[in-house]
Specification:
With about 130 residues, the protein is mostly helical. The chain has a single domain, classed as Up-down Bundle (Four Helix Bundle (Hemerythrin (Met), subunit A)). The chain is built from five helices and no strands. The longest helix is centred in the middle third of the chain and has 22 residues, at about 35-55.
Length: about 130
């Protein structure tokens, strides 16, 4: 499997993901009021990057939001995604189809806490390094 630091990605997907990246970094420097948003935008950033990798490899990205499934699709191409299982599971559990209370940005066990945010931020930083 390719494990280079500089994974090629479709530029349109990368540009689309940058706003989510910047929000994660900005909000993670604030207090705990933004845990939901940080985790949500972390999931969005990773999803868009993985879809951009697929597109760059000539694969039409599926219209799914499951990070685990997207990682498997990328890895079937012989590309190692630099996420831990814990990071992938957390980000997959964060996505929801609606943005309405009380479900917006919740994990199955409730609101994301500081440790969830740290896992999400670390995942974002690993993926950003992988494509930069």
């Amino acid at each position: 499997m390719k494990e280079d630091n500089l994974q090629k990605i479709d530029q349109n997907w990368f540009d689309f993901a940058v706003e989510d990246y910047e929000l994660v970094i900005f909000l993670s420097k604030k207090d705990n009021r933004f845990n939901r948003s940080i985790c949500f935008h972390a999931q969005q950033f990773v999803e868009k990057i993985l879809k951009g990798v697929l597109e760059e490899e000539g694969v039409i990205p599926p219209r799914i939001h499951d990070i685990n499934a997207l990682c498997k699709k990328v890895e079937k191409l012989g590309i190692k995604v630099p996420l831990t299982e814990n990071q992938s599971l957390l980000l997959s559990s964060v996505y929801i189809d609606t943005r309405y209370p009380p479900d917006a940005g919740l994990l199955p066990e409730g609101d994301p806490d500081k440790s969830d945010v740290q896992i999400a931020v670390n995942a974002v930083l690993r993926i950003k390094e992988w494509v930069s």
